[in-house]
Design goal:
single chain; 144 residues; 0% strand
Amino acid sequence: MSPAPDERDRIRSAMDRILAGTPEHSNGALTIVALAMEAQVPRNALTQRHLDLKNEFYDQVRARGQMPDSEKRLRKQIVKLKELRAKDAEELAQLRADVQGLVRAVNQLSLENQQLRTELTAPRGQLRVLPTQPRPPAPRGLST
């Protein structure tokens, strides 16, 4: 598909409207998507055909002391990822400490188990059976 002859002019006009805060066809976000909507051109017009205009748009946004919305989103995501990484590092340190404690417990239980097995298999002292006394005969006349 060939570009419209006035495509570059429409993009420049859209840039001016977005940067002035008066968008007509978009939400006015400082993104290429909003710029393409505002210029009523396909997004790939900015990402493939008119890279210079895309870069010019972002340069103008930065020159005004602002940050493109895509960069804001990425910075927020970086902050969240750093927080998650710190939490993961804490959790990993705790898990490593737990593993050491569990290894000690397993070793202690294994030792106790071995001792109990040794006691069970060890020969015991000999039992002597004591002779029993004969039972006296039951009195006569009483039946048992």
